[in-house]
Amino acid sequence: MKFFHLSASSRAPPNGNLAVAHEEKEKIIHEHFKTHLGAAPDRGITLNWSALALAQHDLSSLEVPFSLEEIKETIFSMPSDKAPGPDCFTGLFFKEDVLEAFHQVHSMNGLDFKFLNSANIVLIPKKPDALAVGDYRPISLMHSIAKIFSKLLANRLASLLNSLISNAFIRKRCVQDNFLYVQNVVRRLHRQKKLALFLKLDIQKAFDMVNWGYLLEVLQAMGFGPR
């Protein structure tokens, strides 16, 4: 991974001292983010998914090959001049010559497509006086091909999301709606003098710490196909 766009002249390591040399800053940044990025260790246990009785969904439409119209619509909806990833291709390149763009990928002869999972990571300061590494937000600049496939899949998933995910993340619905729902439930239980237990979890960097093996198991249990 490459780290660049380090706008501050110093970094604060855990001992509180300031790091000025580029090598020192590189080491501090690497040590900080290696706990959040990269491959997770193997999981020793898993869940009995059949016992959970998760609702099954017909998701066969996600498995069919992409049509030419789907690909064209996705590519031409991309921003033309957004910052590129390691491949250095912007959206404009694909719009100008889609066929040549895919020829460039094909020229790799299928040797190794792991490069699609690599990215340039830009550190954006969260506040004006950013000093510690935690004061910076990492933004990943991905390969354009990976963006296209991600967008294609997102477009297909859009019509199915309402039945698949938590209602806190449905488009046009505010997350505060669920707070109001919980408040109403608490008031009702209080009036009825019923005992209840509510649990609220706030997991630090929850989306950065997802175990991909576990996530794939969840998707398969919900009816997603092998692709």
TrEMBL record:
PROSITE patterns according to UniProt: RT_POL
Stretches assigned to the Reverse transcriptase domain: 105-227
Classification via PANTHER family: REVERSE TRANSCRIPTASES
Official protein name in the record: Reverse transcriptase domain-containing protein
Source organism: Paspalum notatum var. saurae
